[in-house]
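Annual report, structural modelling task.

Input specification for the pyridoxal-5'-phosphate complex:
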Amino acid sequence: MQPIYYISSRGNSAPVMASEAILRGIAPDGGLYLPQRLPTLTEADLTALLPLSYPERAAKILSLYLTDYTEEELLADCKAAYSERFVPAATGIHPLREGVSVLELWHGPTCAFKDMALQIMPRLLSRALDKTGEALDALILVATSGDTGKAALEGFQDVPRTSIRVFYPVDGVSRTQKQQMATQEGENVAVTAIYGNFDDAQSGVKQIFADPAMKEELAKQGKFLSSANSINWGRLAPQIVYYVSAYCDLVNAGSIRMGDILDITVPTGNFGNILAAWLAKGMGVPLGKLVCASNSNNVLTDFLSTGTYDRNRPFHTTVSPSMDILISSNLERLLYFAAGAERCAAYMQALSTEGKYTVDADVFEIIRRDFDGDYCSEEACLDRIASTFANYNYLLDPHTAVAVTAAERYLCGNESTHILVVSTASPYKFTPAVARALGLPAVEDEQECMNSVANATGTTPLEPLTAVFTKPVRFTKVIDKADMAKDVLRM
Ligand SMILES: *Cc1c(COP(=O)(O)O)cnc(C)c1O
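The model returned the following structure:
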């Protein structure tokens, strides 16, 4: 097999192997790493994947991209990542109604789809240290407003040659989220709350990354700073897997026949998840339209209907907070494929100086061939949770409800054989919003709120979410934001 090199979306960095792309995260010219060509999957290849388990499929697909990892290494990592920690299996497909299925990506330890990437990426990073001959160990720093921090902690827990430190705003996360992080297990993890908001936590982390004295001090301790950002190729590649795997599962279930075109709707924030679907399509999986579903932060909906990306607009706090994003970083990778490195770099330059750019007509046409965009108001989102439960006895979280709304609207105006709605979180991860949608009385306490939703719907909260209220608390420290660097050195 020919090796695949990784190049920068901005065209000014030397090509590297996958392990180095994963270790660096971002290319030296500020661009994002991309495979220089897409590997292909023929119908025969897909047919060969049908009888395999999720970890086996994952190892096969990742081995096409990560050509400096052996299939043996990948199989070991995929088995460790996607077996016991996902209940009952890595993913699940729920048939919602004729022609519509839901892909559940929240069977992992934090009950949200970030687990799909963050359970495997740390293992790939750990191997990358050995493969590149890096002498120092990786110290991962994360500033979180809740969900990413917990998923990263779970992913890096006890992974060799790595350690992780998470900072969160003391009053900026929910009680469940705080409890999830404070009870985190593992010898190489630490969690610190700071007085301040999420921006304070994030700018504190950025300052630490930019400080040469910190770099030197940490090197003496045998460490270098690294991040687990969603722009890292090591997070994107594992997301391609579940689109291929879901296609196979739908064929196995008889919902579609091999070769049928499958449309997809994805609740989108940073554009990583939907880009993975596009890469699967580019490899040859018979996918049709990719419907990008947004909440009222609808910058992508406007982009996909006009060709102008304009982040100069009010920021809305919504019931689907993981999609409250005005700069969708992974869109840059799509722009590279559609426009080439030079124009991609110019668009990104315009985005950083003016907050907007307009793509050329030929670029827009290429993007429109595969993508459609739609958005959903807060009210429509809550209505969708209620009506989907009433009509189909299936409980949606608010992010998934945004995607179901976009899928239903898409089906009103378009022919479709089958549409797959990507579900990114368990409804129990966002219980207060779900309770409101169902018209249940408001209860302050989140644990009680879970019970109230469970009683009203006859569903059961997932074990990882209820367990956090009984596990021993390990991390209680709250510090001033000015003391973050000191705190990192003390780890
Ligand atoms: C992160 C996240 C999203 C957005 O995914 P992107 O890859 O950033 O587009 C959607 N829903 C949930 C629950 C998430 O955690």
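The first helix runs from residue 18 to 24.
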